[in-house]
Amino acid sequence: MSTDIDVKARSVLQIGALVQSGMVDPEHVAELTLSAIDASGDPAIFTRLTAERARTEAREASQRVRAGRPRSLLEGVPIAWKDLFDLEGIVTTAGSKVLADAPAARADAAVVARLKAAGMVTVGRVNMTEFAFSGLGLNPHFGTPLNPNVRDVPRIPGGSSSGSGAAVAAGIVPVSIGTDTGGSVRIPAAFNGIVGYKATRGRYPMDGVFPLATSLDSLGVLCRTVEDAVLVDAAMCGRVGPSVQRGRIEGATLVVPTNVVFDNAEPGVIAAFEAALSRLEAAGATVIRRAIPAFDEIASLAARHGALVTAEAYALHAARLSGPEAGAMDRRVVARARLGSEITMPDYVALLTARARLIATVRDELGDALVAYPTVAHVAPPIEPLEKDDDHFVRVNGLTLRNTALGNFLDWCGVSLPCGTGDAGMPVGLLLSGMPNADERLLSLALAAEAVVREPGT
Questions:
Q1: By three-state DSSP, how is residue 327 classified?
Q2: In the sheet that 195-198 helps form, which strands lie side by side, from edge to edge?
Q3: Separation between Cα atoms, residue 415 and residue 199, nearest integer Å
Q4: Closest by alpha carbon to 195, among 23, 5, 431, 437?
Q5: Whole-structure pTM over 0.70, yes or no?
Q6: Helix extents (H) in 239-330
Q7: Which of 96, 161, 176, 184 is the catalytic position?
Q8: Domain count, the chain
Q9: Measured between alpha carbons, how far is 199 from 207 in angstroms, rounded to an integer?
Q10: Which of these, 408, 438, 335, lies nearest to 183 by C-alpha position?
Q11: 308, 215 in Cβ contact below 8 A?
Q12: Is 160 inside a domain boundary?
């Protein structure tokens, strides 16, 4: 068994194979990962290390491997959790200081327990936008993680799963689990040049996950490859192994919307997306460009009734927002959440009614086709202007969330794949989306499409 093998920037599958083959010991992997966190140079990525837990879980994984009884292909693989998932014995702070004195979690969240049962090793909690209520990833309490791809000035990692995106992109951990209410898995994946899979809402149990808007909240995987997402997804579903098989690009139908998603998009983003789309067409995919009327209606509904996420976030935090705790919260989160007080019960019911109708209508219109468009209309912007100007923050946050939030409203599943670079050499993501509960079809095609979508030479 070698101690010379470095696991930095390796995938879940690669680390799992090294462990299974006996080439590297899970305890060695855990120590390398903990050392990488310390050496990262960015103290804002992790909010809490769980070194004692990691060493215990790694030791147990090592014993199982040595006895020839590994629990799964994930045995001994390190994982980090967004600060919304309960970890037994630790307070879940949701990226906020106001929950610091809350009771410690009495048990792991259900999905944490499932991945522990598969043999994965929890190394810590990663940073996030406070209460998950922004797509940018700024956090005034624990700091803002830096996007590891920057070539000029410090840029955002995307949010709200900011630490998850940065930790994987920096090669510190091969996978991190995030939540996605309006794009919080797919946005940091796109900005950081990694894979982000958002499951259909309800695919996994939500027990022990701090909510934002329960009508929209879903979970997802940030990782290096689609294969990794498939492996982790199976374990989160409570399965022994994945049932997803690699699909075929030839014969696949991709719908590219002609409305909303390209509005105000950066030329570099459009160019990277179109180049990737051309590669998919050359590989045999059929591309249909057409408007999706529901996209325009979703925007009209928000303008008329308010945003569904804002209504539910306000309901969750109303007491906090009207009390002294508001003074200790991120001012931008407070301002956005308080907008929910203006959304009436008739507005809220109208949103839910229209949503159910649009989900059914779009499913009937698109059938089994998958939808493809840029994950975000722009690359990761610089941090400093967002910190200095709240009006600029609001504008950028709205544009950042626009494309992904459409999928949340329609209950779609989605995978963001790196497809090249745009302005300042920053990563661009191509978003493949499927209808509700079409996760396995989506992942199947994503397995085949990933190598084609990636920019040649990357």
A1: helix
A2: 46-49, 121-126, 78-82, 175-180, 218-223, 195-198, 413-421, 427-434, 370-374, 253-257, 286-290
A3: 9
A4: 431
A5: yes
A6: 267-282, 293-305, 308-321
A7: 184
A8: 1
A9: 16
A10: 408
A11: yes
A12: yes
Radius of gyration (Cα) for the chain, nearest Å?
A: 21
DSSP 70-110: --STTTT-EEEEETTB--TTS---TT-STTTTSPPPSS--H
Phi-psi region of 4 (alpha: psi -120 to 50; beta: other; left: phi over 0): alpha
Closest CA to 408 of 173, 245, 187: 187
Q: Residue 414: which residues within 8 A CB-CB, separation 6 or more?
A: 186, 197, 198, 404, 407, 431, 432, 433, 434, 442
CATH number where 68 lies: 3.90.1300.10
Hey, what's the torsion of the CAs at 443, 446, 447, 453, to 10 degrees?
Answer: -170
**What's the confidence (pLDDT) of residue 1?**
62
For 367, left (φ over 0), alpha (ψ -120 to 50), or beta? left
User: Is 153 part of a structural domain of the chain?
Assistant: yes
Annotated active-site residue 184? The verdict is yes
What is residue 248's DSSP assignment?
A: -
Query: CA 394, CA 50: separation in Å to the nearest integer?
Result: 35
User: Cα dihedral sign for 39, 87, 121, 230?
Assistant: negative
State residue 2's pLDDT score: 61
pLDDT for the residue 285? 98
**Residue among 160, 162, 164, 416 flagged as catalytic:** 160
Give the domain extent around 201: 12-236
| Cα 425 from chain centre | 22
20 falls within a domain: yes
Pair of tokens at residue 220: 């997802």
Q: Which ranges of the chain have pLDDT less than 50?
A: none
Q: Which residue has the tokens 């990488």?
A: 36
pLDDT in tens, 255-280: 999 999 999 999 999 999 999 999 99
8 exposed, middle or buried (CB, 10 Å; 0-12, 13-18, 19+)?
middle
82 is catalytic: yes
Q: Which entry of 11, 40, 72, 82 is annotated as an active-site residue?
A: 82
Sign of CA dihedral 41, 91, 234, 439: negative
- Looking at residue 250, the DSSP 8-state letter turns out to be T
Q: Indicate the residue type of 93.
A: T
pLDDT digits (tens, 9 = 90+) for 310-357: 999 999 999 999 999 999 999 999 999 999 999 999 999 999 999 999
pLDDT computed for residue 457 by the predictor: 74
- Is the residue at 118 inside a domain? yes
